[in-house]
Specification:
With 527 residues, the protein is an alpha/beta fold. It folds into two domains: 284 residues, 3-Layer(aba) Sandwich (Aldehyde Dehydrogenase, Chain A, domain 1); 192 residues, Aldehyde Dehydrogenase, Chain A, domain 2 (3-Layer(aba) Sandwich), CATH 3.40.309. The protein has 14 helices and 22 strands. Helix 6 links the parallel strand 8 and strand 9. It is globular, with a radius of gyration of 24 Å. 53% of the residues are buried. This is L-glutamate gamma-semialdehyde dehydrogenase.
Length: 527
């Protein structure tokens, strides 16, 4: 990251940062406050484009504060962005891959220089605390660089194949991975930098041109990523940034035949609709989907309970439970259940809740009124059908009344209750006890999702867990986070079953190839 320090910020190291990070964050926060309320255009074909209709980007910690005005793009803007990307594709795709890599690396360097400004915007737009926001920005830089690394390590994905045994001819073969064309990236609110930037960087390095469409809750963060690409000198039309409702602008993009591939991160229901809509074209087009999780942590009687308590609560309530990797289900052996639950409640009650730009705060607000209402509905179910151990209420006193603040909640529920299966995406985690480890594994796997999972127990038990759990990212005995903390090149992020479509994890050794298709080149000449 930009700070001159031996410290490397990741989601695993963020809990004890050097003082310099807070100093630089505070400097960026002061700059941010001088730039509130501005009108931010879309970027189409290298130009700022403004629409007749606007929408306000408001701070979920203080809904009186308008962060900025953004454009309510429509089908006309979707078509313009796609046309620009299509025009730019021939030149960009035939550029030397080394030159594309150089431009994407330059954008990553600019992003690194602007890390704290991006982090402050994210805190204010999403409700991420300081270190979560800076971690998202740093992860985006890492994803940009990792995509470049993979292209370089694979020498542009050109591989010499066998020579045909033809008498009188010389027949050679070569495998070349080539870009698809125009790629659409639809990103969610919860990681607005990494989940916009990561797919965009991979698509660009591979030679595709891109249209970026962020969530309406977080348009500013994505705009800052687009500005880094623009300022790095990525040619006009190679990337395009559009904003507006998913139901109108987003649907117009998805239905347009100019799209050659799509990366979507979001809810299972929306993702499956995109999958079906996108499949109605003349041929199959690549569809990369990451669709959430219902992530378990299993704790045995042999676990280090302090590590388990810390790891579970960090993963359950980081970003207010609004991570698709959040630990939302905890299965605890009956012999250690009371002891562990007591410690989890104690740790949960210590979390500071408030303005996420405040250095003392761990939990900010949930992102919008819809999530605020969801929390209240789920809490009512917990009151009626289960036992709330802590939390279960919204916070409305004083300054809390201006935002969407919810108490972190631990609750006991029967395993048959629907909330053991349903992704809530708010700060609520259910806990339950088991007597047989095989039964715990069965409960852990009996969901539609398979994104992340955590385990606390002996080393032999941990290996058994890896062999039996149905999840794409797994963690063993990790106090830094039971189910969260993936990082490019370390724990690449992706899911099984209803959590992902590709079987390859973002930030991993197989991900960049998803943005290219293979062409075999045979060359014959008489010997």
């Amino acid at each position: 990251m930009a700070a001159e320090s031996s410290f490397t910020l990741t989601y695993a190291t963020m809990f004890n940062p050097p003082e310099e990070l807070h100093t630089r964050y505070d400097e960026a926060l002061a700059r941010f406050k001088r730039n509130l309320g501005k009108d931010h255009g879309m970027i189409i074909d290298g130009k700022d484009v403004f629409a007749a209709e606007k929408f306000e980007d408001r701070n979920p910690a203080n809904t009186d504060e308008v962060l900025g005005l953004f454009q309510k793009g429509n089908a006309e803007h979707a078509n313009a962005a796609l046309a620009a990307a299509r025009r730019a594709f021939p030149k960009w795709s035939h550029m030397k891959w080394q030159d594309r890599v150089a431009l994407v690396r330059k954008a990553a360097d600019l992003m690194n220089d602007r890390l704290f400004d991006i982090g402050v915007v994210m805190s204010s737009e999403v409700g991420k605390n300081r270190m979560e926001a800076l971690g998202d920005a740093a992860e985006t830089v890492a994803l940009f660089r990792y995509a470049c690394d993979r292209m370089e390590i694979n020498n542009g994905f050109t591989v010499k194949l066998g020579t045909d045994p033809l008498i009188g001819f010389e027949s050679t073969n070569e495998s070349v991975l080539r870009p698809y064309g125009v790629w659409l990236v639809i990103s969610p609110f919860n990681f607005p930098a990494a989940l916009t930037g990561g797919p965009t960087a991979s698509a660009l390095v591979a030679g595709n041109t891109v249209v970026m469409k962020p969530a309406t809750d977080t348009p500013w963060t994505a705009r800052l990523i687009a500005e880094c690409l623009r300022d790095a000198g990525v040619p006009e039309g190679v990337f395009n940034y559009v904003t507006g409702p998913g139901s109108t602008l987003g649907q117009a993009l998805i239905e347009n035949p100019e799209i050659d591939g799509i990366t979507f991160t979001g809810s299972y229901d929306v993702g499956m609709k995109i999958y079906r809509d996108f499949g109605s074209s003349r041929w199959v087009r690549p569809t990369i989907l990451e669709l959430g999780g219902k992530n378990p942590a299993i704790v045995t009687q042999n676990a280090n309970l302090e590590d388990a308590a810390i790891g579970i609560t960090r993963s359950a309530f980081g970003l207010q439970g609004q991570k698709c990797s959040a630990c939302s289900r905890v299965l605890i052996h009956e012999s250690v259940y009371d002891q562990l639950v007591s410690r989890m409640v104690e740790l949960t009650n210590k979390f500071t809740i408030g303005d996420p730009t405040d250095r003392s705060v761990y939990l900010g607000p949930v992102v919008n009124k819809g999530s605020y209402r969801d929390y209240q509905g789920f809490s009512e179910e917990l009151h009626q059908d289960g036992h709330i151990l802590t939390g279960g209420k919204i916070l409305i006193e004083g300054e809390y009344g201006k935002g969407y603040f919810c108490a972190p909640t631990l609750a006991e529920l029967p395993f048959t209750h629907r909330l053991w299966q349903h992704e809530m995406f708010v700060p609520i985690t259910t806990v339950g006890k088991y007597s047989d480890l095989n039964e715990a594994m069965k409960i852990a796997n009996e969901v539609s999702y398979g994104l992340t999972a955590g385990f606390y127990g002996s080393e032999d038990e941990r290996e058994w867990f890896y062999d039996n759990i149905q999840a794409g990212v797994t963690y063993g005995n990790r106090p830094q986070g039971a189910t969260t903390g993936a990082w490019p090149g370390f724990q690449p992020f992706g899911g099984w079953k209803g959590s992902g479509s590709s079987g390859k994890n973002s930030g991993g050794v197989y991900y960049l190839q998803l943005y290219m298709h293979e062409q075999i080149r045979n060359r014959v000449r008489r010997g």
